[in-house]
Amino acid sequence: MAERLIQALSAATARLARFFGVAGPSGLGRRLLLVALALALVGWQAGWMPAVAQRITGTPGSPNATTTIPGTQLPAPAPPFGGVIRDGALQSKPWWASRIVPPQSAPNVLLIITDDAGFGVPSTFGGVIPTPAMDRIAREGLRYNRMFSTALCSPTRAALITGRNHHSAGFGVIAEQSTGFPGYNSIIERDKATIGRLLKDNGYSTAWFGKDHNVPAFQASQSGPFDQWPTGMGFDYFYGFVGGDANQWQPNLFRNTTQIYPFEGKDPGSWNLVTAMADDAIDYMARMHQINPSKPLFIKYAPGATHAPHHPTKEWVEKIHAMHLFDDGYEKLRERIFANQKKLGVISKDAKLDPWPADVITPWDQLSPEAQKLFIRQVEVFAAYAAYSDDEIGRVIQQFEDLGRLDNTLIVYINGDNGTSAEGGPLGTPNEVAFFNGLNKLPVEVQMKFYDVWGTDLTYNHMSAGWSWAFDTPFSWFKQNASRLGGVNQNMVVSWPARIKDKGGLREQFVHVIDVVPTILEAAGLQAPEVVDGIPQKPIEGTSFVYTFDSKNAKVPSRHERQYFEMMGQWALYDRGWLLSTKVNRAPWDAFGPANPDPLNNQVLELYNLNEDFSQTTDLAARNPQKVKEMKQAFIAEANKYQVFPLDASVAARIVAPRPNITAGRTEFVYTHPMVGLPQGASPLLLNTSYSVTADIDVPAGGAEGMLLTSGGRFGGYGFYLKNSKPVWVWNMVDLERLKWEGTEPLTPGKHKVEFDFVYDGKGAGTLAFNDFSGVGRPGTGTLKVDGKAVATKTMAKTLPMILQWDESFDIGSDTLTGVNDADYQPPFRFTGTLNKLTIKLDRPKLSPEEIRNLEAAMRTKAASE
Predict the structure, then answer these.
(1) How far apart, in whole angstroms, are the C-alpha atoms of residue 399 and residue 410?
(2) What region holds the Sulfatase N-terminal domain (predicted)?
(3) Which one of 157, 306, 627, 744 has the lowest number of neighbouring Cβ atoms within 10 Å?
């Protein structure tokens, strides 16, 4: 062994001497440098260091030759032609560039991230919901109890695929709230290539299944551009949805960039995306394996579970109901999970629980029997959704084993992209779209009307925040709360049988989602590129945690020492166990009031030592004022470094912020051809404005019916259609009420002009720029006309202020997915007449100079009083 090492060092030193132009050893320093470089080269060859040295198999230039690449530049530059070209082919020698492959033994990678699930959800970490797939990976690999997210969906996912902080990647908030600042514009710039792109260019097959939520809302239409879609960011294949959530029974589903409808024609409740995406992933894996079994796979697997709507199958609801896990309420559930966590050893022995927040969430024994019944139904459906999703994840994991590839597969299974969501409010809701329009406390008696269909295609459901608090045990607060561990402290399991031998081990090092990309790169023997497509790359900001795979490093300090957190004006800084955090000043459901005008300074600061206080229960700020001051300055430094400024504490107001979509600046839209699938972020918005919609149509003999124009669906939107030849306009007020304008007589055969005019009585969304909600959701009067004559007039006492059902589209001539009025029609409800032209004209309110001055004065007065 020693002789071979000496020979290898001698050969390597000689090669390096020739490379550096050194004729011979003319100095001790030079010789030592060459020996050090030679050791590095031998280390590459022996597998001691990441394999960045080129490895060639086969005869160079032959069709079967393969090569690894340095990886500093992607795509790899084309090599010079190595054959011979003469006047004739018979006198020439052909030559092929070697096919690019990853380093030898580079693993397959399965990256799993679930949605809106806190620390106490999975059984793997003490939860009562069975998650056997996660349990399996934990048994075969490692458990991590300090995996951190950003507190919200899009931001975590942008950080996960780029290895950069969420503001660095343009995702300071979700795509639907983007604003015109670099840290918040929802654009992953080309100097931050994703892990999909890096692996693809190094010879991997790359695929993405499930939720995306990193396509800007203003680039989600079929007019593109598609560079921010998965297929534009390095993933060969995409099967999923691009928005924040999806109806799992009838999703806004894409294969690559083409919308598909695999559920059409299926009986209600017989098709579900949770199973369908597992089926598609399994099929994809089988095809890739059959075509080229030597090519490693990278799969990002991102179920919609457990984000609302909670849509499990009936069978899973019945399984969970039979277990009676929640009959004694959310406080008892919390205590049971906490006890389980200590028994499993996944939290520290001296961890404590904060008192139950009775001022925020009504204690269980103070609820009415009817409320308890409703809440139990809500949580059983949520739990069924989580268990169902984990079961389907298990099928995907099993496919790796069935293909004989599990041993060399790195599986990273992250529970939740943030803490459990409380966006259903304290009472839960049958329709989450109502929450985003300010209706977040629907009375129990109203919700009980949906009890029997909870979780089916007739609801867009969410559960009471009391359950969410319990599912974040041992921490407090929820998704959106970036300053509390309940919002950001996830958990994770990792397995790689060929590499990780400490089966069932626990790792307590601080790990953040930005650490996943460098970990995958190190595991695959790859380095981050310096240039991609000619664009110099920003440094990866995460830290690999491959070092934690070895049992000898089980207790070493984390190499990720400092991390900032910020979400909608709440912020924190972690520094080697210390956590400076802002006191929570807004529950997630309180999204419709004026925002904190100075979120950097207008805060109560708290200080925790997480090395001694696992669950963030003991505030040390009063005892350590200097530490608080130092850490605040450190946060400011991090915020400047990573594009966090300007801090913005607004929530709902950002939903309707101006964006550079294809409708920006336009006041008239003309359609002459049927069209479906235009997303909300790229279609004319009829909220908080006056408008008119005019359809020039031909009615055939015998009459006509069908959809002229619709946007949204069963859970919020509008429709303009003919029913039995009578014109109808319907506003669906988040499935709680439907306001209807209808003609009194059927249209006669021939040409007609049907029109809906709406006059809005409000100042419009412009008031939101002044931290004022008075301009949105105001009343208005609608008039339905036929051939210029008014046939129905009605005043709306209130209008939708913020959003329609975002996973449904803007359609002309028919209606895709769900309809806005089940009582009148069922999709696709194609128009049976002839639609010659449909015109939409907008007359958006404009603030007068005096109104602007008044709003500015009111904003200054409020800021001075806080």
Answers:
(1) 14
(2) 107-525
(3) 744
Over residues 171-181, the pLDDT tens digits come to 999 999 999 99
630 against 9, higher pLDDT: 630
Residue whose tokens read 């029913």? 723
What's the pLDDT score for residue 849? 94
Q: Which residue has the higher pLDDT, 26 or 600?
A: 600
* Under 8 Å between Cβ of 435 and 462: yes
Per DSSP, the three-state class of 563 is: strand
For the segment 30-45, what is each residue's pLDDT rounded down to a tens digit?
444 444 444 444 443 3
The angle at the Cα of 707, spanning 705 to 708, to the nearest 5 degrees, equals: 110
Residue-level pLDDT at 70: 95
Alpha-carbon radius of gyration of the chain: 29
The token duo for 521 is: 């790169």
Closest CA to 247 of 110, 432, 491, 103: 432
Structure tokens at 301: 């697997």
What lies within 8 Å, CB to CB, of 501 at 6+ separation is 551
Could you tell me which residues come within 8 angstroms of residue 857 by beta carbon, excluding any fewer than 6 positions away?
Answer: none
If you average pLDDT over every residue of the chain, what do you get? 93
Q: What pLDDT was estimated at residue 863?
A: 74
User: Does residue 222 contact residue 286 with C-beta atoms inside 8 Å?
Assistant: no
Tell me the whole-structure pTM to 2 decimals: 0.93
Summarised one tens digit per residue, pLDDT across range 671-706 is: 999 999 999 889 999 999 999 999 999 999 999 999
Q: Which of 170, 195, 165 is nearest to 562 (CA)?
A: 165
Q: Which two tokens stand for residue 616?
A: 């963030």
Contact between 662 and 805 (Cβ < 8 Å): no
Give the Cα separation of 577 and 614 in Å (integer). Answer: 10
Q: What angle do CA 592, 594, 595 make, to 5 degrees?
A: 100
How far does the chain reach from its first CA to its final CA, in angstroms? Answer: 73
Orientation angle between helical segments 153-162 and 516-524, nearest 10 degrees: 30
Q: From 232, 152, 160, select the one nearest 168 (Cα to Cα).
A: 160
In the three-class reduction of DSSP (H, G, I as helix; E, B as strand; rest coil), residue 494 is classed as strand
Residues 434/133, Cβ–Cβ less than 8 Å: no
The candidate with the shortest Cα–Cα distance to 100, out of 72, 70, 67, is 67
Q: How many residues does the chain have?
A: 866
Instruction: Tell me which residue of 306, 344, 401 sits closest to 138, measured CA to CA.
Output: 344
CA distance 812 to 711: 9
DSSP string, 418-453: SS---TT-TT-BSBHHHHTTT-----HHHHGGGGGG
Closest by Cα among 144, 149, 50, 159 to 549: 144
